[in-house]
Amino acid sequence: MSAPVLRLKGVNxxxxxxxxANDVDLDLPPGIVxxxxxxxxxxxxxxxxxxxxxxxxxxxxxxxxxRSLADIDPRGAARLGIARSFQDLxxxxxxxxxxxxLSVMECSALPWQPGGGAAARARRDKADATLELVGxxxxxxxxxxxxxxxxxxFLSLARILVTxxxxxxxxxxxxxxxxxxxDRFVKLVRGRLADGITICLIEHNLDIVxxxxxxxxxxxxxxxxxxxxxxAILNDPKLAAIYFGERR
Amino acid sequence: xLFLQLLVDGLQLGALYALMAVGFAVIFGSTxxxxxxxGTTYVIIGYLFYWLAERLHVPWWxxxxxxxxxxxxxxxxxxxxxxxxxxxxxxxxxxxxxxxFGIGVVAENxxxxxxxxxxxxxxxxxxxxxxxxxxxxVSYLGIFSVLAAGLLFTFLNWFLARTDVGVAxxxxxxxxxxxxxxxxxxxxxxxxxxxxxSLLVAPAALVATCVTGLTPxxxxxxxxxxxxxxxxxxxxxxxxxxxxxxxxxxAESLAVWKLxxxxxxxxxxxxxxxxxxxRPSGLFGTRARV
Amino acid sequence: MVGYILNLLILVSISGxxxxxxxxxxxYAGIYSMAHAAFFGIxxxxxxxxxxxxxxxxxxxxxxxxxxxxxxxxxxxxxxxxVRGEYFVVxxxxxxxxxxxVFSEWKDVTGGLGGITGVPIATLFGYKLxxxxxxxxxxxxxxxxxxxVIYVLARxxxxxxxxxxxxxxxAAAAFGKNPTLVKTIxxxxxxxxxxxxxxxxxxxxxxxNPETFTVDQSVLIMAMIIIGGTGTVFGPILGxxxxxxxxxxxxxxxxxxxxxxxxxxxxxxxGAMVLLMIYRPSGIIGRANLKDTWxx
Lengths: 248, 290, 296
Known about the structure:
The complex is a heterotrimer of chains A (248), B (290) and C (296). Chain A is an alpha/beta fold. Helix content of chain A is 35%, strand content 24%. The radius of gyration of chain A is 18 Å and the shape is globular. The model of chain A has no long low-confidence stretch (mean pLDDT 88). With 290 residues, chain B is mainly alpha-helical. Chain B has helices at 2-31, 38-55, 60-88, 93-115, 140-162, 164-174, 176-181, 186-210, 218-233, 238-255, 261-278; strands at 129-131, 137-139. Chain B has a two-stranded antiparallel sheet. The model of chain B has no long low-confidence stretch (mean pLDDT 85). With 296 residues, chain C is mainly α. Helix content of chain C is 71%, strand content 3%. Chain C contains twelve helices and four strands. Chain C has helices at 2-26, 36-53, 58-80, 85-105, 107-110, 132-155, 157-167, 169-174, 179-205, 215-228, 235-251, 261-279, and strands spanning 116-117, 123-124, 127-128, 207-208. In chain C, a hairpin with a 2-residue loop joins β2 (123-124) and β3. The relative contact order of chain C is 0.18. Chains in contact: A-C, B-C. Chain A binds chain C through residues 52, 54, 73-75, 77-79, 83-84, 86, 90-95, 99-100, 102-104, 106-113, 120, 143, 145-146, 148-149, 159, 163, and chain C through 153, 156-158, 160-161, 163-164, 166-168, 170-178, 181-182, 185, 290, 293, 296.
């Protein structure tokens, strides 16, 4: 297996008395989907926040292709090719579907983007094409806030698809989707692996996580309890007990 | 010597600023309302005091008590009829803010219609001053200011630490959701908050009416000093707000040493901008900056 | 009568510029500024001084005032936009108060409470704008310019970035945008456009004094936007119109004492703001209440 794209080594994070990350070692191998699973409050979103620089680890190292992410903030993470989606979507609600997707490609703060008219046209075409890909073309000019639940999930994915990020961190991207939509979603996500994208996603639903991921890491109370083949992890009775059982 | 006199004056001013600031901070800390009308409470108390004492010749202590009470009623009413309805509708911070200064504008102009736009003040024997030696002059009202601050802060300390409502208010400022979870009634709590915050502004209003005089637009400065003190002291810290008020009072008074009175009024805001630039969490800020 | 109407329209144009430029940051960026009257004043004083000592040409005074306002806006935006939006409101209030003190106390430059009088007539390409008609044409042209600039900017990538940051700053940053820089530029643009109004005002009334540039004026500008609606390009202009027509309308209610008219207006605006915030936060023209869309 080639070198991991993202590597966490001995990462710790506490909030007062709560241990959010406990000596976490995690590798994200390139070109595959790694899923983070575990009960609520296990620290999965915290790991994403630590990777993107929303939070700073108390100790430990986080490296992207060998480069330390210790001094990074979310903007910097984006510039290094990390794209992140949120559990609560965080769409640009008053903007149209089209603008949501287009705006994500416009990162310069100046009133004009580099590349002039040709690049602008290319961005617009790419936005349209991506909307076509995720099936949101008919919602082109609708306000993001007016979309139905499933459409909003696909819009969130569209914003990720349209970037040229090489590492995706998706936080419960498909939760609550009906089976048909979910299949479509999985195809879109896995379809980009061939381009060399590395994907890490947080998934709550153990039934569906097997269909989307190549590798699974199981977290509980900030600790990585197991990592490996989906089948092995999911069939482990001890982990199932933790997920369903004693913890409130 | 001039410096000492300015220091003494600064302490008196600082005591009043500290009271205003803590009043604002109590409200903001517990309800997250940017209570711009805090300045309006001040003006209402002051003008009512003036009207009762000077125009209707009510004994000053009665007038003062009534005016303070009216201020409290105003604060609580504002919470009940304006802030709460907005917050119920998922009103944002700014919606509440706009409504708050809308109230301020309305009240300010009603007062202009009733009392005119220029200074009003009360002449009382309390404005007399005494020479305490070394050429330093301390007025009775100055002593009153410091005493009032001391008394009210002691009361506040006791209230927040020892009474059920007080402890609940502290909990509210740490974690609003928690309060609901414990079955406490946030509505009642915010009433207490506004009552308390508005009461704290009373001494400053009463003293100002006697000493410097009052104008209808005085409220702007009051709320701005209160906010500045809260930011300097650190949002989330009542002690910080009090200290911030004291610092601002001292700074403004001492500034007269080198600057004219006009310029010295701007000192507070320069300090405010400085803190926002260099240390936005203030001296004792407890709130996380997210 | 004609003169009265021309004068009114000029003032409405100036207020329209003030309201539109403030709406650029309030409506599109969600940044609430209380310092707009301060920038209005800074531009007015700059314009007056340039007219008296350098040149009466609008083509000199306006760009100078715009540059001045944009530069000074950095005084509040650089420190406070790094932190949360609420700090910006406070910082802007602070700047407003400081500006008023400077206008009143810096007697050598601003003339203190008396202000600056005798501002000469404006010229444009050498042509003196002596008549009200000509000045109105220029004012309307400036209003059109400001409205046009805002309209275009809103549709560019910058406008989209601004709105994205307003809608969800965390997500915007996560996708690589620079919220602080974008907001700082927006505030500078807003202040600069406001500067145009200041210069026009100084030339139109030929004097400048601190009384015009108080917190109450900042509040009045904000009232125009709130009443007219923040979500559209024309809302602020409508708000400006309403607020200027109101006094005229009030004079017809003869039972109201004339002395108190100014205060009555303010009471009406203040009351309107409060009621709107409770019942219709997006103003008279603004989009329907967000609540209506929570139908899921």
